[in-house]
Amino acid sequence: MKKITILSIVAIMLISVVLQAGVTYLTEDEYKKLKKKERLHYWENLENDLDNYQQRKADAIANQEKLSGEIETLKVNITSAADKYDAVYNEIMTFLGINVGDLASIQQKIEFYNEKITNWNNLSDDELWSAKKAVRGLVVEYNEYRGSNYGKVPDFRRDFSDLDNKIANISASLEAAKPKYYEDSYTVVKGDWLSKIAGYSFIYGDISKWTIIYRANRDQIKDPNLIHPSQVIKIPRGLPYEWKVYKGECLWKIASYPEVYGDATKWPEIFRANKDQIKDPDLIYPNQIFEIPRD
After folding, report:
1. What pTM, to 2 d.p., does this model score?
2. Given 1.10.10.410, 3.10.350.10, 3.10.310.30, 3.40.50.300, which CATH number is that of 183-238?
3. Which of 40-49, 72-81, 93-102 is predicted most confidently?
4. What is the pLDDT of residues 230-242, one digit of tens each?
5. I need a labelling partner for 174 at 20 to 30 A (CA). Which of 36, 53, 97, 214 fits?
């Protein structure tokens, strides 16, 4: 009987070591070496340990019963919330006029936009600027799609939020890649004339700058008072770094153009930068291309 009791103590000892370091448990041989008073103290510790674990067990059972009740309540709440979510979701989808079959096409559209933007992000500034028409076109298309009912489907809120940021970033990258001088294009509509075009806010907002447009399009506009609907003309942006000479021009006249220096007295700067092809500053020829020095 004593042997069985000691084995039981050893079993309790092993469990206790795993659960909590408390009493230092002895082997059977170590126990036999204890004096009577030491054995009584050892047993006291074991009994205290046993009481402690019994209490912990009782507390755990009570907590388990309490938590089990809470879990069941939560399950009911989850089911109720899920039902309400489904009801609201279905109401939104009905209002938007979108069914489950449309979700795949929306996902494909999102992947299309992501793929395009990823490809553009891998381009150099020059390459990105060369693709500006496609980039701007996609931004317009995306904004229209984003504002449609397809962009309001709850399933893709995070996807569209991410795309909003990517579209903003690629637009900023395109702006940063813009060279100091470049040319936009404008298609003439009925009722347009050069000064009117120059006065548009998206062109120059200044009717007096019509001459800039004229000079940039002298290859196709022979008479500045005569332009035609559907004619596509160049709109210079920024200050050019080179200039193609046209008949009747001289260095001081070129320097006087607002898109060059706006100051005729700066003609020597053009002369000094192009001495390799200008022998006499009073003698320049049509179709010569001069460098325009910039600070």
Report:
1. 0.54
2. 3.10.350.10
3. 93-102
4. 999 999 998 999 9
5. 214
